[in-house]
Amino acid sequence: MQPLTNRSQAVNRAPLTWWERIYLPAIIGGLSITLKHFFRKKPTINYPEKTRPFSPVFRGLHILNRDEQGRENCTACGLCAVACPAEAITMEAAERLPGEEHLYREEKYAARYEINMLRCIFCGLCEEACPKDAIYLSETFAPSDYQRKQFIYSKNDLLIPHPEKEPEAYKKALGNRAGKKEVK
Amino acid sequence: MFLSIDLIYILEKLILIVIIVSISMVVAMYTTLAERKVAAFIQDRRGPNRAGPFGLLQPLADGLKLFFKEEIIPMFSNKFLFVLGPGLAMLTALMTSAVIPWGSKLELFGREISLQIADINIGILYVFGVVSLGVYGIIVGSWSSNNKYSLMGGLRAASQIISYELALGISLIALLMVTGTLSLKEMVLQQQEGYWNIVYQPLGFFLFLVCTFAECNRTPFDLPEAENELIGGYHTEYSSMKLGFYLFAEYINMFISSAVMATLFFGGYDIPFLDESTLPVNVAGVLGIVALFLKIAFFLFLFIWVRWTIPRFRYDQLMGLGWKVLLPLALLNMFLTGAAILFFDK
């Protein structure tokens, strides 16, 4: 039969020479190799204490953005849900009532906004589709959980912290990408 | 009057026994951690580092885990012998520590305490006897578990230890011809005054080292528990703390063997280039213990280092090495030593 690759080699069945049969040179060689590895720098990163930096284009968990006064940007237009190739986004719209101007930026808002993180493929098309600067993919990833229903993230899980009440948490959640898109 | 002094003497020895046994246990525990750490470092990993700082509580976690595991005694096993096996392995592993001089002496409460449980004049013979008893733990356990893999492991252990004990004994006879004493304490005193025995017996030490690896069932001679051929060998059927005892006995054996090697060939508790008699008794005693434990630590590292470097021998290679290489070399070493003693009329 023809060899399938050019990497096959005949097994060397020659009897061991005297030098090989005293084993010691090979053993000492092996010991020096392992000792070298002993002092080598370890490539492992101690994960929970230390994390690798994400790339600037990393697409992680979604956040629902607010404006500077802490009003929700989302108007429940549904463009993100349409754009979503995995059909992970569900929403229900509601009309803003008088006296709720400090909560929602426009007359219509999302009463229910859910993303199924098990369906989501983190492609970022929702972010591209959004005309209101409302949804962004942040630099965190979905934590593990025991139940599937815990992966359906509701509006409470997705909303960014209030910029006036918790400015530091807001800035952290905003990351280096959100809030830079021009709103039409 | 006579009786009361005697009682204190007994009490002193009992305390010493408790201390040495517990130290052996602790050292064995932390040798398991060292084994995992060194293995990890050699393989470019980090090793256990979650339990406590640097993973220092890992041995405790391992021990607890073993205690809480379900204990299974196979239905067709000989129950008495099945329980006896790990106990025997542990007992014989610990017994050797009795004759090793762990230090010179300490002065506490106006008494001079020798740091050796029993300074018997046939110390080396006792070590030999107990070490060769150690195989019974393995044989009894493997035979009583009524499993063919275990039995194979036990057979291998028995034939391996018999083959290597011969070379071990003969390499020691050469050493005895040089020192002229069987007492370990006296050997250390001789090495304190003169040179270490490694200078007189380099080949003897090397043979002793190789045979010790075989006696402790360590790689490259760990055929009795070859995982890929015998599914764990003699402890296939063991679970829970009985398995723990077998694994633990191996580490205690390593510890004691390292202590014996340090005592026989590397001056025991002797500190090189230092005259201990110029120091106060207690300081010299403590420094001596530290020196001995540093030597032991080096040998333990060697055991682990070799394990994570060399693959296992094939069984015929093992037997060929024992009978065709080590035994003739040991005989040659004995012959040369005798000739040198006659020639130089030492």
Spatial arrangement of strands, main beta sheet of chain B: 1-2
* Mean pLDDT over the full residue set of chain A: 84
Q: Name the strands of the widest sheet of chain A in spatial order.
A: 2-3-5
Rg from alpha-carbon coordinates of chain B? 21 Å
List the helices and strands of chain B in order: HHHEEHHHHHHHHH
Overall structural class of chain B, as computed from helix and strand content, comes to: mainly alpha
Count of domains of chain B = 1
Order of helices and strands of chain A: HHEHEEHEEHH
Oligomeric composition of the shown chains:
heterodimer
**Global structural class of chain A:** alpha+beta
Number of strand segments of chain B = 2
Shape summary of chain B? globular
Percent strand of chain B:
under 5%
Helical amount among residues of chain A, as a percent range? 10-25%
CATH topology group of the domain at 62-174 in chain A: Alpha-Beta Plaits
What is the approximate shape of chain A?
elongated
Task: Summarize the largest interface: chains and residue counts.
Answer: A-B, 13 and 13 residues
Please describe what this structure looks like:
The complex is a heterodimer of chains A (184) and B (346). Chain A has helices at 18-21, 24-38, 79-83, 125-129, 155-158, 167-174; strands at 62-64, 89-95, 108-116, 135-137, 152-153. Chain A has 184 residues and is an alpha+beta fold. Chain A has a domain at 62-174: Alpha-Beta Plaits (2-Layer Sandwich), CATH 3.30.70.3270. In chain A, strands 2-3-5 form a three-stranded antiparallel sheet. Chain A has a two-stranded antiparallel ribbon with strand order 1-4. The model of chain B has no long low-confidence stretch (mean pLDDT 84). Chain B is mostly helical. Chain B has helices spanning 2-42, 58-68, 79-95, 123-144, 148-179, 184-193, 197-200, 202-215, 227-230, 240-265, 281-307, 315-344; strands at residues 105-108, 111-114. Chain B has one domain (65-344). Chain B is built from twelve helices and two strands. Chains A and B meet through helix 2 of A and helix 1 of B.
